[in-house]
Design a protein that fits this description.
327 residues; alpha/beta; 14 strands; 24% strand; four-stranded mixed β-sheet; binds N,N-dimethyl-L-histidine
Amino acid sequence: ASQLQNRQTLTAVDTALSQFYDDVISGLTSTPKHLDSKYFYDTRGDELFQDIMNCEEYYPTDCEMEIFTEQTAALAKAIKADGTPFNLIELGAGDATKSIHLLRQLQSSGTDFTYLPIDISGHVISSLNATLPALLPGLKIRGLEGEYFNMLTEAAKSSDNRNVVLFLGSNIGNMPVHEAEDFCKVLHMHLSAGDMALIGVDLKKNPKVILDAYNDKEGFTKQFNLNLLHRINRELDGNFDIDKFDHYPIYDPETGACKSYLISLEDQKVRIGGQMISFAKDEYIHMEVSQKYTVEQTNNMAAIACFKPIAEFYDSKKWFLDAIWMA
Ligand code: AVI
């Protein structure tokens, strides 16, 4: 049985690697060139993202943490609704540093709920399964490793309880607006009347504050972007010369899109596996979008996906919004 399991694990790793290769080659042979920021998060990428979250300029984490620590009771009350038992499903749970406050509050008010963190990383899920019950004795937890919507179907199947889905951290911002709308529509299709979603959204604000957050003085964001080239070298047998690329972040207050690019500093050829890719001097690779919204745009997105916004929680600066939507 364990041999079979090993083989299955190996096949899953192979499939993930060949998907990574296909996505990289298709992105770098497109015009304009692009890479998918979901690949930022290998072990080193996770560390760099921690550094970003701890750096002075990156405000979204602090803002949302303020909401989860200062308004915990109100958040809990809103999602408890009529008091019937529910599944609390978190998409991309990470280390649950924000949601843990909500979990503790729900427990201390004697609420009947099961916590179902979903993450693509098996490491994240096994560590949550191991650490949370010790921190929150009596917590009903069932971690699910896999793609968001596959696991959401799985989670919803596990009981007839209503579902409350957490999608925090402005993760929705890493999709272009149309994709975010489609994502919300698909989310709605996976839910039933009376279910809820709690969505964390980074709001439009002084453009300088936003640009600084994605252009930190210590260069963590730059390294975060360049790390994907390192990852391609390591995992896909590439030969990027990292020093020949520079990081270029921009924020457009009109569209609310904060984008980051890597710029080729000279004409150069890079080999990835068996494929040669040419870069012209000054050519860019689009790496990531971090979309910022107004409250009205967020409400509009809810409406497009057939959700009804029922509550709004802001940090004291009104830089970040945790919105509760009813399906
Ligand atoms: C994970 N995500 C919401 C972060 C963001 O703000 O878009 C990723 C990030 N990229 C650069 N800095 C942080």
